Amino acid sequence: MNRFKNFIHYLRIDGEVEDFAQIHQTIEKDIVFKGTNLWILVFAIIIASIGLNMNSTAVIIGAMLISPLMGPINGLGYSIATYNMPLFRSALKNFGFAVGAGLVASTAYFALSPVATAHSELLARTSPTIYDVLIALFGGLAGIVAISSRLKGNVIPGVAIATALMPPLCTAGYGLATAQFQFFFGALYLFTINTVFIALAAVFVSQLLKFPITSIMQESEKKRINQLISFVIFITIIPSIYFGYGLVQKERFSENVARFTRNITVYEGSYLLRHESNPNRKELILIYGGNLLSDANKDALREKARDFSLGNADIDIRQGFSFNEDGTEADKLKLEISTLRSTLFERDRERDSISALFNRGDALVRELNAVYPFIKAGAYAETRMFSLSGSSQRVAQVTFQVEPGKLKNDDKEKIQSWLQVRLKSDRVKVYYEDAPEKKDKPVKK
Question: 354-434 in CATH: which number?
Fold first, then answer.
């Protein structure tokens, strides 16, 4: 119990909280955009736009560090938690001004810029997911805790980089300037996610630390505000979950494509020259060179794709170049070289497969001998079990030589279960035979 209390004591932050009046003054000061804050906002917008335009990560990070956008967002959350409606209106007005200024300035910059290519830094701000929600929430928590603490450290700059408020706002300006509204709405949605969940973090921490309520409000009004907050959170988070699911599906598709293409590098004397995939549409293009692939070969490749969870993919198999029997001497020579390479590749793969089987059999014997010393030797092989219907199943066959009379039925069941787990297969056939007795060596006279 004492250890638990000590652990809770280490987690408590209320002992490090700054004076409430000082916290209020800091948040109120950061809300207003005039003088220094206004000029810093202008500079940050231009720097972020240039960084996005030139695809410079370092410049974008610099813009995030000097951006003052966190101030009014923290003010929104703090004012909601303390039911300070005048402060809320001031924060909302200044935040609206900052967003409008950011959109106008970035749109003007990209409209005048001769470089209109959408680089990776721009594209990264157009497809928000549930992960961006988590980044904004935990970044906002870190930010408001740092503002509330006497031990602020260097948290605020890190929060500014993690939550990345300025780049999506400028990306939305790029979408307006180039009339690419999918960029505009995607980036604006990411900016909305960051804003809502940073403000939500401020609300949560302000209530957790019991910041004093500065105005009297009826319970019905408080309930209405809480319902409104819940509604905003709901409509903000639902699309991000959908986009997050889509991102996971795209990553799985790309991984399956990578495994599949490694397996079909050489097929029927033809080489995979390159492949192109589109995770959004689940499309895969395979371009082969070498022997001409027949329609049956192509159908077999598409069927093989099902083993790699690509059964629903649209697979287009194309011939980059092909050899034929009636070609020139150079073509025939190329054909012979292609055939030789294919043969060598297949033999190398068979050799590697045989070596892997040998090593697996040796490992099985050694591992089981440590538990069952009466197992003296063993053999491992992989084969197929054929049925009269024409179907077949892969079967692992294991044979052990054991000391006569030492093996029990319970041991057989345990060994069978262990092998199924070890080989990751339910189709394991195990055979036992008596180990040959050692003959005494003749004594030399």
Answer: 3.30.300.30
